[in-house]
Write a structure and sequence with these properties.
- The chain is of the alpha+beta class.
- The protein folds into five domains: about 160 residues, Beta-Lactamase (2-Layer Sandwich), CATH 3.30.450.40; about 160 residues, Beta-Lactamase (2-Layer Sandwich); about 100 residues, 2-Layer Sandwich (Beta-Lactamase), CATH 3.30.450.20; about 70 residues; about 150 residues, Histidine kinase-like ATPase, C-terminal domain (Heat Shock Protein 90, 2-Layer Sandwich).
- Helices cover about 45% and strands about 25% of the residues.
- The chain has a six-stranded antiparallel beta sheet with strand order 3-2-1-6-5-4. The chain has a five-stranded antiparallel beta sheet with strand order 8-7-11-10-9, sandwiched between helices. A five-stranded antiparallel beta sheet has the order 13-12-16-15-14, with helices on both faces.
- α2 packs antiparallel against α5.
- The chain binds adenosine-5'-diphosphate.
- The site of adenosine-5'-diphosphate has 20 residues, from α16 and α18.
Length: about 725
């Protein structure tokens, strides 16, 4: 440790204690920069004090008998003391440094016996000032590479001399200092080298890790690859890795790993491949094989297989091949297919020929179809028919020219639903809207007759339109379309016929009424006269007149219905009474069947007495008409919620399901071997349905062939 026994103080020896003008300059070596680099390479400046160095300065001070001994290192602008025996400061400015002079002659000691008399130092404040340096002896500290770094020096406040032994000893000590410095530098370099080694090892470890990972990846890639892959190592082509696909081609399992290739595909099959492998290994050039044929073992059986493959050399950094990677794709199916195709080519040619013949036929058929369509169009026009279609989603309407002309629409441009409805007779509009709704929402087919007022001529035209919903391949309704007919002529004929029937019926009714009156008068006279034959004959005449009256009433009603002249005369009456009276009337003239009214609780209803009576009598008459003699007919009614339901049941011939839906249409009669002898006009049920309809009721039938029928109607209460 440096002893603080000097009168030198750090304050007085600061870096620049003198004004610039008085500063001493110091000598510089030619290679000063290199010298400084050398000094810095020891990393010693500004380090803490060390016992080794302090021991050496202590020894120097004892040997030379001086109060001060220093290990001084000359920095760029200062001298710094690694050890400072007898001086409390650790550095002074280079300007005042004795050592800066000592290093100029690195090979010998610099000894200043009396600094006051040396012109280099006589004005040096360290000499002139309190520090009072008089004697100085410094041995330059020269590095192993020849750079003077500073000096080991001894200082005294009085003039004196050193013996040769003392100088030699000081030189040996200086050598010791240098050795210590060199040792230090070596240690630092070693540390650095160690550090580098450490980094290198860490890197190596990381690289190794990466290598392992990429090798693992490569292996798993090879194993999972959708093509056949194997890696063969070295000149013996030892199997390093092989995936399932290539093992399958070779007909081997995992035990082939580390075995040479010639053991996997032995001669003669393997010969060719072995030769290619050798060539690739020695030349370092890849080999590509196309459609190579080989025998593959599948399910224990050998079969021909075709492959495209590549043998690719894998090289090290120096470009020397160390392994070969084999990649093969099986193309057996394609090759076989191609062969089949070429075999089938002739067949294809023939088929092609047939196809072109069929095509020609198709063209002809198409042509014929076009002609047929044209004929159909003409036929439709002749028959006063057209076609129409409505898109159920957009309500877009398309119609043939015939319909457009009939309505008085222009032949080009779109026609809206609204325009169509406006052309339709207001009386039928609501009905048509209902029909349209039922078709689109409930997919019901339609068959309607209505009148329109032609837009240009204002003429009334009668039309009949049928329609049906069509579906796309997903079952979604995509078209509501059908046929359209101009039935004006038929309709006018019908109206004329109706008028005629109405008129005739009316004309017939009056004489019949008086005929019935005369028969009744004659009957009562015959009864009085006791002439039984006359009574019987007159009764039968009355029955026939009654039948005729009923029939004529029917016709009259029809004509009234058609001209919309039928009107209801509603009144309150007892339904049970009406049924009993109607039954009595029928029983007067019919004795062939057992007709029973199953007693029901009395019920008052508000309706047209005559017309409801007509309906009941019609249903009973039909039951009698279409049932075998001797069978039973039952009438009953029941109250359900707010309506009354009346039923007439028979044990007759029954009606087929397809006829039931048409029973209530005008003039509809079931035509079969059972009915052809039974006379009728097919208006009875139609009239019943119309009467019930205007009473806001419902009428329907249930029937089973050979077992009988039940006719029901219901009326709101
Ligand atoms: P029709 O004058 O022909 O009797 P309707 O309108 O009264 O005319 O009846 C229509 C058709 O319904 C008849 O032709 C008949 O085939 C069938 N029909 C009506 N009532 C019965 C019934 N009770 N049993 C079997 N068929 C019946």
């Amino acid at each position: 440790m440096a002893e603080n026994n000097s009168d030198l103080t750090s304050n007085k020896l600061g870096k620049n204690p003198l004004p610039a003008g008085k500063r001493s300059s110091f000598p510089l070596l030619e290679n000063e920069n290199e010298r400084l680099d050398a000094l810095y390479s020891y990393h010693i400046l500004d380090t803490t004090e060390e016992k080794d160095f302090d021991d050496l300065t202590a020894l120097a001070s004892v040997i030379c008998q001086t109060p001060i001994a220093l290990v001084s290192l000359v920095d760029k602008d200062r001298q710094w003391f690694k050890s400072h025996k007898g001086l409390s400061v650790r550095e002074t400015a280079r300007d005042f440094s004795f050592c800066a002079h000592a290093i100029i002659s690195p090979n010998r000691a610099m000894i200043i016996t009396d600094a006051t008399k040396d012109k280099r130092f006589s004005e040096n404040p360290l000499v002139t000032g309190e520090t009072n340096i008089v004697f100085y002896a410094g041995i330059p500290l020269v590095s192993s590479d020849g750079f003077p770094l500073g000096s080991l020096c001894v200082i005294d406040h009085q003039t004196r001399a050193l013996s040769d032994d003392q100088v030699n000893s000081l030189t040996i000590l200086a050598k010791q200092v240098i050795d210590k410095l060199e040792l230090r530098r070596k240690l630092i370099e070693l540390d650095k080298a160690n550090e580098k080694l450490k980094i290198f090892f860490t890197q190596l470890e990381a690289d190794h890790q990466k290598l392992n990972e990429s090798e693992l990846k490569l292996r798993s890639l090879i194993l999972q690859a959708p093509v056949a892959i194997a890696i063969l190592k070295g000149p013996e082509h030892l199997v390093e890795s092989a995936n399932e696909k290539i093992l399958k081609i070779w007909g081997k399992d995992k035990r082939v790993v580390n075995k040479p290739f010639y053991k996997i595909l032995p001669a003669p099959e393997g010969d060719l491949f072995l030769k290619i492998l050798r060539d690739v290994y020695t030349s370092g050039i890849s080999y590509y094989g196309y459609e190579a044929k080989t025998r593959i073992k599948t399910h224990g059986e050998f079969k021909d297989g075709y492959f495209n493959f590549v043998y690719q050399p894998l090289k090290d950094d120096a470009g020397v091949t160390h392994s070969i990677i084999i990649i093969a794709t099986e193309i057996t199916e394609q090759v076989v297919a191609r062969k089949e195709v070429s075999e089938n080519n002739a067949l294809l040619f023939a088929t092609n020929h047939e196809l072109s013949t069929s095509n020609q036929m198709l063209i002809n058929t198409n042509h014929e179809l076009g002609e047929t369509q044209l004929k159909l169009k003409q036929a439709m026009e002749t028959g006063k028919m057209g076609s129409w279609s409505i898109n159920p989603l957009t309500f877009e309407v398309t119609m043939s020219d015939f319909i457009k002309e009939l309505f008085g629409f222009p032949l080009t441009g779109k026609i809206t639903m609204e325009e169509i409805l406006l052309t339709i007779d207001p009386e039928y509009r609501q009905m048509l809207i209902e029909v349209l709704r039922n078709a689109i929402l409930h997919h019901l087919p339609s068959d309607t007759e209505y009148s329109i007022i032609q837009r240009i001529t204002n003429e009334r035209k009668w039309v009949k339109a049928t329609g049906k919903i069509f579906y796309d391949s997903y079952g979604v309704a995509n078209e509501y379309s059908g046929m359209f007919m101009d039935i004006t002529e038929r309709k006018l004929d019908e109206l004329r016929k109706n008028d005629f029937i109405g008129m005739v019926s009316h004309e017939l009714k009056t004489p019949l009424t008086s005929l019935y009156g005369y028969i009744q008068i004659l009957n009562s006279r015959a009864e009085k006269a006791g002439n039984e034959f006359f009574v019987g004959a007159l009764n039968k005449s009355a029955l026939q007149v009654k039948k005729m009256t009923t029939m004529i009433n029917g016709f009259l009603n029809i004509s009234r219905l058609n001209s919309g002249k039928i009107a209801l005369q509603k009144q309150s009456f007892k339904l049970d009474d009406l049924i009993s009276i109607t039954l009595e009337d029928i029983k007067l003239i019919q004795h062939s069947h057992t007709v029973t009214f199953i007693p029901s609780p009395p019920l008052s209803i508000f309706a047209d007495l005559d017309k409801i009576g007509n309906v009941i009598s019609n249903l009973i008459s039909n039951a009698i008409k279409y049932s075998p003699v001797g069978s039973s007919i039952t009438i009953q009614y029941q109250v359900l919620d707010n309506l009354v339901q009346l039923s007439v049941q028979d044990e007759g011939m029954g009606i087929k399901r397809e006829d039931i839906v048409h029973l209530f249409e005008r003039y509809y009669r079931v035509e079969n071997e059972n009915t052809h002898l039974i006379s009728g006009f097919g208006i009875g049920l139609y009239l019943c349905a119309e009467i019930i309809k205007i009473h806001d009721g419902k009428i329907w039938a249930e029937s089973e062939i050979g077992k009988g029928s039940v006719f029901h109607f219901s009326l709101p209460l």
